Amino acid sequence: MQIELRDPKKIMKLKRLGSFHQSKLSFLRSFLREFNSWDYKRELFELDNDGYGVAVYSFKKEQRKYSLVCFANKLDDNERSDRVIATKWDASFTLYDGIPTKRDIERLSLNVPRQEIGRMTYKELTLSRANKSMRAFNYVVECLSNGSQPSTKKLSEIGYLYRTTAVYGSGKFGLADRFRIKNRPEIHGPFRLEMMLVYFVRQFTIDQVNFISKNKNPRKAVELDKNIARSLGIGNSTGLGMAPFIVNHPILLNNWILARETALKKIREIKDVKQEDFNYFFECLKNSINNINTWNTDSDYQKEKIKNLKIDLVKFIKYLEQELDKKKEYLFNIIFNWVDTNLTEESIEYAVSLFLEPYNEIVDQLTPTMSADEEKFFNIPVERKIEDLRVIIERNYTEILNIDFNEDKNIQNFWFISKNKEEPRVANRFEEIGSELEQPLAIARDVKSLYLRIKNLKNSMTISRFLADNNDLRHAVRRVFMIEKFPYSEIQDNIIGSELMPIDMLRLKLSFFGACKFDPRSDKWLRICMFQGAPLPEELKKFKDNWIYNSLN
Amino acid sequence: MRSFSEIETISKRASRGAGFSWGVSEEIGKSVRLLEMFGLPGILYLKSYLERISNQNFQKITLISAENISNNIPYCPISVGVNFMDQTHNLEKIDKINFSNLAYPLLAVPFLSRSSEIIGKKILLNLENFKFLFNYNQSIFSNFDCSLITKTSKFLISFNQNEDSFDKMTWDTLYKISQKTFVDETESSKQTSAGAGLTDND
Question: Model ipTM?
Answer without folding.
Answer: 0.87
